[in-house]
Design brief:
The protein has 306 residues and is an all-alpha fold. It contains 16 helices and no strands.
């Protein structure tokens, strides 16, 4: 039986979850270890069940990634289950992100004969044999993504799925601050995509075909784009890597600000989701960087904190 919860209850739970988020000191400590040690440290906290589950068959950076993604999926399900009816539409749309990522990964790797089902669906119990036998439409159905069926028939299904996700999220984002957060996320994604394609000499007309919103295409050439971005963000940006970090930090700061806003709104919930997703991304980035053998200082450059 699902009990209808009010906003103060949700806010109290969000505050408790916020206090368990990893901070800059935690990542600093992790950076002095190894991917396996990071997994052990995760096991001591909220990631315990997921590390134990995937630790039977994985290790290193892969274990960190699978445990983190699975925990994120569990968190979204928990938030949605305890939310009052007024918040459910927004949380339901936000929870589609991990499932649409699963669908996009399955499409991207459908031509790969060496598919690791757990790497595609870390938060979902689908065996490799079952996944191999599923069509894209059947997988979408099993993931509860019926609204995305038409996107699968497009020339660029991955892009159309991602575009539809953000369109649906904006529809459910009633508060201006949440809409701004969604638009920041889209700009971050499109700007980084544009800069990467510019670096490869891709023509402007072709770049827009890869964007969720063509209006996010940076003006001018690559150097001008970095200059404008530096002015906009108030920090020096001279590479795609630094641009991505600066944009992520701006989005995270906006999310943290909402996380600490008034209890009687959806903003603290949306802010927590942003912070949690950033934590998962930090864990994955740090573990992969350390496993690749780069030095600790360079690995820490992949970490984004507010």
């Amino acid at each position: 039986m699902i009990v209808e919860r009010d906003h103060p209850y949700i806010y109290a739970r969000i505050a408790a979850k916020r206090n368990r988020l990893l901070d800059a000191d935690d990542f600093e400590e992790m950076s002095r270890t190894s991917p396996d040690e990071i997994a052990r440290m995760m096991e001591e906290g909220v990631y315990r069940d997921q590390v134990n589950r995937f630790g039977r068959s994985h290790s290193g950076a892969r274990l960190v990634e699978l445990a983190a993604q699975s925990n994120l999926s569990k968190e979204m399900q928990h938030l949605e289950s305890m939310a009052p009816s007024k918040l459910k539409p927004l949380l339901s749309r936000m929870s589609e992100k991990s499932r649409t990522q699963t669908l996009r990964r399955a499409i991207r790797w459908s031509r790969d004969s060496d598919v690791d089902a757990q790497s595609i669906t870390p938060g979902i119990d689908i065996e490799e044999e079952e996944l191999a036998e599923m069509s894209d439409h059947e997988l979408a159905e099993s993931l509860g993504l019926q609204q995305y069926q038409d996107s699968l028939d497009s020339d660029r299904p991955e892009l159309e799925i991602e575009k539809l996700y953000y369109e649906r999220l904006l529809e459910a984002a009633e508060h201006p601050a949440i809409r701004e957060l969604v638009e920041m996320s889209v700009q971050e994604r499109d700007t980084v995509t544009s800069l990467r394609l510019m670096a490869y000499g891709t023509e402007t007309g072709e770049i827009t075909e890869y964007l969720l919103n063509p209006e996010n295409l940076p003006a001018g050439q690559e150097d001008k784009a970095f200059e404008d971005l530096s002015d906009e963000l108030g920090t020096d940006v001279d590479s795609v890597r630094f641009a991505e970090r600066a944009l992520r930090r701006r989005t995270l700061k906006h999310g943290i600000k909402m996380l600490r806003s008034e209890p009687l709104s959806a903003r603290p919930v949306a802010g927590y989701v942003v912070a949690k997703r950033n934590e998962v991304r930090n864990l994955e980035s740090l573990a992969n960087a350390l496993e690749s053998g780069i030095d600790r200082e360079r690995a820490m450059e992949e970490i984004v904190t507010a």
